[in-house]
């Protein structure tokens, strides 16, 4: 294992968990995972594999400032609020970027989404999570944080298909498990 530390936001979630899994398989990096609950079964399972699990929330810049100390790279993902107002995806993303800048993190990998309002010419303006993440892309450029911006798209398998199963509708008349977009 190298001395290079990679911090993964949302380490026990779908995207962050996939990043942690890949980093563990690679074996060349120290991994610090951020989570809302260091005592959860998922956090303990990652800790048992050598991941340093720490409390950290994208909405709480102070926890990020502490967690990003010494990081070579940070994988950033936000927790959608689904309600107007802070802490929204933009505020959370800005906190992550600011914590990277404050800690001189040389590489930031940002999980973003396309800007729906702009790409639709203003036709669709209520896709807030997409637009706010895309606004963070602009902020990253404005503060000159070295970054890789991943435009992941929506996670349809996470959003639509569980609802179809709940209301007992299936496209194929079979209830097959769909692969997650995050794994």
UniProtKB/TrEMBL annotation:
This is NADP-binding protein. GO terms for molecular function: oxidoreductase activity. Residues 3-153 form the NmrA-like domain. GO terms for cellular component: nucleus. The keyword Oxidoreductase applies. Keywords: NADP, Oxidoreductase. It comes from Dacryopinax primogenitus (strain DJM 731) (Brown rot fungus). Belongs to the NmrA-type oxidoreductase family.
């Amino acid at each position: 294992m190298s001395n290079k530390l990679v911090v993964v936001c949302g380490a026990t979630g779908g995207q962050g968990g996939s990043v942690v899994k890949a980093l563990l398989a690679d074996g060349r990096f120290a991994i610090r995972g951020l989570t809302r609950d260091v005592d959860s079964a998922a956090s303990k399972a990652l800790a048992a594999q050598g991941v340093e699990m720490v409390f950290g929330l994208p909405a709480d810049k102070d926890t990020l400032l502490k967690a990003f100390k010494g990081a070579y790279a940070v994988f950033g993902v936000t927790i959608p609020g689904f309600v107007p107002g802070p802490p929204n995806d933009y505020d959370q993303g800005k906190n992550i970027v600011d914590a990277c800048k404050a800690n001189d993190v040389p590489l930031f990998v940002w999980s973003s989404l396309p800007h729906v309002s702009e790409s639709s010419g203003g036709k669709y303006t209520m896709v807030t999570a997409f637009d706010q993440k895309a606004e963070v892309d602009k902020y990253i450029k404005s503060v000159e944080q070295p970054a890789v911006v991943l435009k992941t798209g929506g996670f349809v398998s996470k959003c639509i298909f569980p609802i179809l199963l709940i209301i007992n509708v299936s496209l194929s008349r079979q209830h097959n498990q769909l692969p997650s977009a995050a794994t």
